Amino acid sequence: MMWLLLPAFAEEPKIEVPDRSHAPDVLAPVPLELDDLERHELGEGLEVWHVRVPRLRKATIEVTWWAGRVDLSDQKQSAHSVVGSVWDVASEKYDSAELSELADVLDMTLWGYLGDHQMAAGVQVPLDELDKGLDVLADVALHPAFPGREIKLDKEQTVRFFEILGPASPRRIVGSALTYAWNPADHPYGYRPDPDAYSKVKRGEVFAVHEQMMAEGPVSILVVGDLSWEDVEERLKTRFGTLGAAGERSEVLDAPVPTQTRVIAVAVPDAEQVSIRMRQSAPARTDERNAAMEAVSYALGGHFLARLNKNLREDKGWTYGVGAWYSAGRKRGSFNVSVDVPADKFAPAVTEIEKEIATIAAEGTTDEEIDAWWRADVMQFNKIRGTIDDAYSFYSNNLEEQETVADALARIDAADKMTVARTAEVASEVLSADAPRIWVVVGPKDAIVKGVDALEWEVEWISPKDAILGRFEGGL
Amino acid sequence: MLIVWMATALANDPFEVEASVHTLDNGLTVVLSEDHNTDNIALHIHYGVGARDEHEGEYGCAHLFEHLMFEGSANVPTNAFDEWLTAAGGWNNAFTSEDETAYHETFPSGALDLALMLESDRMGFLEAGLDLENLQNQQKVVLQERAEGYAEPRGRNWDAIALIGWPEGHPYQHSVIGTIEDIEGFDLQRVIDFWKRSYRPRNAVLSLVGNFDTEAALERVEYWFSDVPDAGPAAERAEAVEIGTEVHGDYYITDRVEDRSLYRIWPAVPMGHADEPALDILSNVLSGGRGTRMDDALQFKKSIASGFGVFQSNSEIGGHFIMVAIADDLPLSKLDAKIDKELAKFAKKPPTEAELKRARKSVRAGMLNGLEGLEGRAEVLADCQRFKGDPNCSGADYARYEAVTADDVMRVFNKYLVDEKRITLSVVPEGDDGMLEGSVEVEIK
Fold it and tell me: Is the domain of A57 the same as that of A162?
């Protein structure tokens, strides 16, 4: 239906001139209502976590075994990586070409994922293709084929990354070096890849790792979408009813944090830029300083005009952008800074980063920064109902962290009640000048040498390939 | 003000979005679409100005201007655009292409007035906020953006393709990011002139998607944009230069890479052209993942290439059909021969109905997924309105793909993928001679 309204016969409206003398008032956002995951049981105690999120076109169903890489011996690490890459490529019923075609035809995304503490297979599928999507998920998750050709391809691509792609990219080099510097090589989180071992992985070893994970991990199924429990109960029972609950979830491990400041440098001949990354210890997710640290991190690097961006990009024009973020794990956390600058701005940029950190450590955030952070949090929370990806991401995280909607709302409430004094207190503890920091810098050698001299840093040089493979000590 | 209400039939058509279109007295087109599933609103504003509108000596101006739009306007001091929007909990970004510059914001619904004030102020009154200090700073930031992109492997490939893929004088024959010389050379008057040529209500579509009442939102849009002057239509845009065989040739660049890439580029069609769907289907049939012709032949069944892809790149006045293959040790001449062999096989064996169905569904999925979130929907509605005069053009657009037959695919294959117009770009490590024989080096300024 279409119609036109032409106000030609109406009285000429009085034109109101907009008041541009100040920014218009903004109403405070309110967190929307959100349902929690509900726990159900099927068959022999298989737990299913379900939540209905109205009006989404697609649903996500994910099966998770709570056993992961840290539960495997060193000898099985390479095979574990292969499982993660090849699991979702083919199954007993569908070869890799058929499965790829089916995903396109059904508008379906299928994945297999292996992490430190879990192994999961999932599908995102339109509601009207739910049965077919579940059939495919059940077949892939429980009866993977791990074809020899696909294993060979994965080994080629992975070794290619180690040998060719990784060492050619400054950003991959700097990211990889930081990750390995954070974790000791002899800790389960610090596992270093071995191209030689990777290239020798046998198909039987891949099956064995998958079977071990399935046998050792208790299972959960997550269902997110515009589906009632009645819509899914029988469908899940038919396909996954034989899975039972057994054993304990893989435990998050204690892991060391750096005890000394370290500078690792990688020379890239003829480069014109220096990539700079910094990581240091920060409170864990359950630490009472968590909320204040979130506020501090937001003020330093959470948006376009956050302090580091304002300084290095907007005021000085030294970079296209600075990233700074706080990552809070269950047992430890980290604060991170990432920036690329012209080679001659390496030392000045580090000096400015330290200066901004010192300022916030001394003074904390401002009230305005806290308020903006709280509003941004509410907006993120209110996005959850908007797309299947946002909804799945939120509920999947809740399941992993064993949290609820109330926990998310409590974090928003904590943000609302945060004070400048509290942010100053936490920032001064966490980001003090003598807190051990890991710096990794990648760029032209002469510029790095000049920069570290100016900064009076002692530097450890490693090669691009050692950075990519983690062939140096970490976690010092 | 003219109001056209479009009430759409929503039942069972996943492409349909309930949206209304309005034209303000100053010529600004506004698309409004309510979504009460969240409390947020996405705003997208599409200006019909891009790298194509740059004159010689001002390459990179459209993109630089995208940066300057955040630097302040008559009533919004320097940095206040980001400051105010961030303080409201919102975020924003922007992009520039050959044809358009687009700005988008997502914010809690209580910040609608603020977002409209910010957008209207920079649409109507930017000049008063532009100053030399901000210009010089953003010149540095843009040069750094360019340098950071170029520092990564393959970071210069697309700029090289822009140089070799279009004939002399074609409005697309330079990169969107621009040349160092031009970026460094801009003065305040030049960028103000650029803004005056193209930034005006009649050259923009504003779309809002999210938690608002249409009538109330329209009233706020009218309020904030009512004093933005109607500056008439934008300056006439540069038109395409016909592409003959003069762009045909073999080119190369060296890069900080340890593998070799070969791009094959054929001049193809602009957006909306009748052959666009068949060319898209062709690209999907050749390279849409495991089980598709060339992906299997070159990568998944045999490890001839370590990476392979085929796609169409369409803009408003031109397009390319592009193939890219990556090899580690294989000389690119051998990879080139393998590609020829596979194309010859395809020429003898048209796509099956199953192949066509898969390709169509793949296109459909991409279109539907683009409509799911507020931000994506706001962009699609604005683009549809601008190019087709109907915010709900996605369904009709997809219908063109449903109609593609195997004969159509073979026809465009034979028409466009011809040797006489083929351009190649070899990307090889510094000091390596594995490029196609006789290739000419591309100079990127």
Answer: yes
In this complex, the residue of B39, B120, B141 whose CB is nearest that of residue A30 is: B39
- Taking each helix axis from N to C end, the angle separating A405-417 and A367-383, rounded to the nearest 10 degrees, works out to 160
Chain B residues with CB under 8 Å of A25 CB are 113
A367 contacts: CB under 8 Å, gap ≥ 6: A420
Of A57, A89, A164, the CB nearest to B14: A57
CB contact at 8 A, A79 and A212: no
Please indicate whether, in this complex, the C-beta atoms of A272 and B151 are within 8 angstroms of each other: yes
Tell me the two tokens of residue A302: 């959470």
CB contact under 8 A, B111 and A17: no
The DSSP-derived string for B102-151 is EEEEEEEGGGHHHHHHHHHHHHHS-GGG--HHHHHHHHHHHHHHHHHHHH
Task: Pick the last residue of a domain from A240, A265, A289.
Answer: A240
Residues A218 and A281 in one domain: no
Q: What is the nearest CA distance from B148 to chain A, expressed in angstroms?
A: 7
Report whether A54 contacts A226 (CB < 8 A): yes
Closest B-chain CA to A158? B306
Contact present, B426 and B332 (Cβ < 8 Å)? yes
Q: Are A207 and A348 contained in the same domain?
A: no
* A413 domain-assigned: yes
**Same structural domain, A234 and A281:** no
Contact by Cβ (8 Å): A13, B1:
no
> What are A429-442's pLDDT values in tens digits?
999 999 999 999 99
pTM above 0.90, yes or no: yes
Q: Give the chain A residue nearest B256 (alpha carbons).
A: A168
Question: How many distinct structural domains can be found in chain A?
Answer: 2
Residues 68-87 of B with CB under 8 A from A: 70, 74-75, 79-80, 82-84, 86-87
Question: Would you call B117 and A24 a contact, using CB atoms and an 8 Å cutoff?
Answer: yes
Q: What is the pLDDT of residues A26-83, one digit of tens each?
A: 999 999 999 999 999 998 889 999 999 999 999 999 999 999 999 898 889 999 999 9
Can you tell me the ipTM of this complex?
0.93
- When pLDDT is cut at 50, 70 and 90, the band that residue A422 belongs to is very high
A294 shares its domain with A340: yes
Say which CATH number the domain at A213 has: 3.30.830.10
Q: What is the pLDDT of residues A156-166, one digit of tens each?
A: 999 999 999 99
